[in-house]
Design goal:
- With about 300 residues, the protein is mainly α.
- A hairpin with a 2-residue loop joins β1 and β2.
- α3 crosses α9.
- The longest helix is centred in the C-terminal third of the chain and has 28 residues.
- The two termini are about 15 Å apart.
- The model has no long low-confidence stretch (mean pLDDT about 95).
- The chain binds geranylgeranyl diphosphate (GRG).
- Geranylgeranyl diphosphate binds next to α4, α8, α9 and α10.
């Protein structure tokens, strides 16, 4: 196993333990809702966004306990987006992270409510004092995550995605859609370490530029996996984009050009980090991992 794969697995275990502790136990009269939250949030996943939070926090020597809470909050928002994306009203997915999707395992109303509760729990965690001693830092984390997740971020990307079903479109539109739908949360993950570390604007801009290209490379590879991947290996429904008549980077560019573009973006993401020297090697490894991943 490569060093990065080992580091990713180890971070995923730590983040899973943090999520386990932060999620309410599935007891009492709301146990069905709480079980659904735990079912989706603890179902595994690469925890790539959490890894980006922890890696960027390490750059600024942030207390690991604070960084872990932010990493968990990001994974809760990400999980909510997957639960809602899988609903019959959206992608109608049946398999996620190798398990039946939340609305199949529970029911549609419980899946919707569990997504709502995962999203709101994320903000509760960020607002708590244990996340950072300074209220101004906590407030900036809440504001930035809300901006990344909301109507000028991920939700905007999702609505554009749904509007474009069976419509002619172009690369510029798909690029904007994906920057909002997937890129904004990845960008928050990369920048959150700088927020926690109260780093100055220049370093935040470097991380933002890195995250921008990384997010797009990640999405192009996701499209390639959706077109060519294996459901069992990926643990999720594949071919959904084509079935829904959705244009993707792959349908617009073809497989070979899409793969080339993903490589170019990953290299560009790395080169944004040049001013930071050797201490960002792990972020360069992430850029390579994103294009080589098989799941
Ligand atoms: C419902 C508001 C709302 C938004 C949904 C992110 C999203 C928007 C939908 C997910 C659909 C999708 C499969 C997008 C492609 C990129 C992506 C987010 C893939 C899944 O992320 P991974 O590969 O998943 O990091 P794991 O399971 O490893 O966490």
């Amino acid at each position: 196993m490569t060093d990065l794969a080992t580091a990713l697995n180890s971070a995923a275990e730590t983040v899973d333990a943090e999520l386990e502790a932060l999620l309410p136990s599935a007891e009492g009269s709301e146990s069905r809702l709480l079980s659904a939250m735990r079912y989706s949030a603890l179902a595994g996943g690469k925890r790539l966004r959490a890894f980006l939070v922890l890696s960027s926090a390490d750059l600024f020597k942030v207390d690991r306990r604070c960084a872990l809470r932010v990493a968990a909050a990001v994974e809760l928002v990400h999980t909510y987006s997957l639960v809602h994306d899988d609903l019959p009203a959206m992608d109608d997915g049946t398999l996620r992270r190798g398990l039946p999707t939340a609305h199949i395992e529970f029911d549609e109303a419980t899946a919707i409510l569990s997504g709502d509760a995962l999203l709101t729990l994320a903000f509760e965690i960020l607002a708590e004092e244990a996340t950072h001693a300074l209220a101004s830092v906590r407030c900036e984390l809440v504001r930035s995550l809300a901006a990344a997740a909301g109507c000028r971020g991920m939700v905007a990307g999702q609505t554009i995605d749904l509007d474009l079903e069976n419509m002619e479109t172009d690369i510029a539109t798909i690029t904007r859609l994906q920057q909002l739908k997937t890129g904004a949360l990845i960008a928050f993950s990369c920048e959150s370490g700088a927020i926690l570390g109260q780093a100055h604007g220049h370093l935040r801009r470097v991380l933002h530029a890195y995250a921008h290209d990384l997010g797009l490379a990640f999405q192009i590879v996701d499209d390639l996996l959706d077109a060519e991947g294996d459901a069992a290996e990926l643990g999720k429904t594949v071919g959904a984009d084509e079935e829904a008549g959705k244009a993707t980077f792959v349908s617009l560019m073809g497989v070979d050009r899409a793969r080339m573009q993903a490589r170019m973006l990953a290299d560009q993401a790395s080169s944004h980090l040049d001013p930071l020297g050797d201490r960002v090697e792990v972020l360069r490894d992430v850029a390579r991992f994103v294009i080589d991943r098989r799941a």
